[in-house]
C-alpha cells in the first residue's frame, strides 16, 4: 500500500519539510550559490548561516507559507531547466547565474534577490513560457 496523499488543507509534517530542506539545499549547491544568495532565495536574513546548516542536515524547513512557497518555486525552476536542457545538465545548473537579456542583463538570482518573492515568480514565469506552458 502506498502512502496516503496529502490534501492541500493538511499541514506538511516535519519529516516532509526535512526532505524539502535537503532537496533545496542540494539544488542550491548544484547552482553553486554562496551562502548570502542561498539565504536570499529562501527568504532568510543574509547572515543566517545557522538555518542553512540545519537545512543541509535535513532539519525541517520553516513551516511559514512564504518559505514553503519559495522552496516550491525554486524546485519548479529546477524542473523547468531540466526539461528545457535535458542534454546539458551543466547549462541547466549554470543558467540561474548567467546574465540574461530577458532580465535586463541581470542573472535570474539577481532578479530574485532584488525583487524577492515577486522575482521568483518572474523567473519561474519566464521558464514556464519558454516551455510553452
Report on the structure:
The protein has one domain (14-130). The chain has seven helices and no strands. The protein is mainly alpha-helical and 133 residues long. Helix 1 packs across helix 4 (65-84).
What tags apply to this protein structure?
mainly alpha, 133 residues, globular
Structural class: mainly alpha
Give start-end ranges of low-pLDDT stretches: none
Would you count the extended β strands for me?
0
Element-level helix/strand string: HHHHHHH
Largest sheet: none
Shape, principal axes of CA atoms: globular
Radius of gyration: 15 Å
Number of domains: 1
Q: Which percent range describes the beta-strand content?
A: under 5%
- The rounded distance between the terminal residues' Cα atoms is 34 Å
Mean pLDDT: 91
- Quickly count the helices: 7
Summarize the structure.
60% of the residues lie in helices and 0% in strands. The protein contains seven helices and no strands. The relative contact order is 0.13.
Topology:
Blueprint: H1 14-30, H2 35-41, H3 49-56, H4 65-84, H5 89-94, H6 108-115, H7 117-130
Helix pairs in contact: 1-4, 4-7, 6-7
